Amino acid sequence: MYTVELKYSEEPAAPPHFLKLSSNSFEEGDFDENFYQKSQMVFRKGNTPRGLFYIKSGRVKIYKHGSDGKEQILTIAAAGRFLGYTDLLAQRKYTSSAMSIEEAVIVFIPKEDFFKIFKSNEGSDYFTNLLCKDLIEAEKKMVSMAYTPVRGRLAEGLLELVDTYEDHEHKIELSREDLANFIGTAKETVIRLLSEFKSEKLVQIQGKYIQVINPQGLSKVNSLYS
User: What cellular component GO annotations does this protein have (predicted)?
Assistant: First the structure.
């Protein structure tokens, strides 16, 4: 059993009328935690949500498939993230799928308990802020996909993933295929651009790991196209 604490490590950039949490944490009951192997489904697009998922450890990719069948990764979620809350709030079937990309421990919060949390002042404030932050990030990514060349998207994606892998000394452990699906390009293009970034001393490649060694340089690459 696991007690879920709702905490902010980063306050989302929200309009002034959105409220902040009135305290540092919110606790609501004890819930079951489940172990997931690498590449195990957490939930699938089209299924009906039965509750909320909270990542205690590990990482999960949230993705969809385009009309051509190609996978598009919307985000890589790490420990401390909630999954599936937007579909629960909208009372609709899942609009995307979630799969673990490494071993993970995920807490399941039944639907009834989630709405008890959400109806409390603190829970409502928390998830309202979270929804706002996620909408801003989704809009930012949509604009990037539409207007930023792939070199800029890779720089931006690596900077985003650095935070996701902060517990791995910022060493990004993601397959080249998943990285390509994350920034919306071909695997071969990612391999070529990573080689360029390595030559420019922006990253180090250590087998399956990618380590950002010059985040300022990557930010400069990204800013050239923004």
Answer: cytosol
- How far apart, in Å, do the first and last CA atoms of the chain sit? 45
Residue boundaries of the structural domains of the chain: 2-145, 148-223
CB 153 within 8 A of CB 189: no
Q: Are 64 and 97 in contact (CB under 8 A)?
A: yes
2-145 and 148-223 in the same fold: no
Q: DSSP string of 165-195?
A: TGGGTTEEE--HHHHHHHHTS-HHHHHHHHH
Task: Report pTM.
Answer: 0.82
Kindly report the backbone phi and psi dihedral angles of residue 42, in degrees, each rounded to the nearest multiple of 5, phi listed first: -95, -50
**Going by CATH, does the domain composed of 148-223 fall within 1.10.10.410?**
no
pLDDT in tens, the chain (226 residues): 544 444 433 433 332 222 232 233 444 456 788 999 999 999 999 999 999 999 989 999 999 998 888 999 999 999 889 999 999 999 999 999 999 999 999 989 899 988 988 888 888 888 899 999 999 988 888 888 888 999 999 999 999 999 888 766 778 999 999 999 999 999 999 999 999 999 999 999 998 899 999 999 999 998 887 6
Please check whether the domain covering 2-145 is classified as CATH 2.60.120.10. yes
Helices 150-164, 176-183: crossing angle, 10 deg rounding = 110
R_g of the chain, CA atoms, integer Å? 18
Stated as kind and residue range, the H or E segment containing 86 is helix 85-90
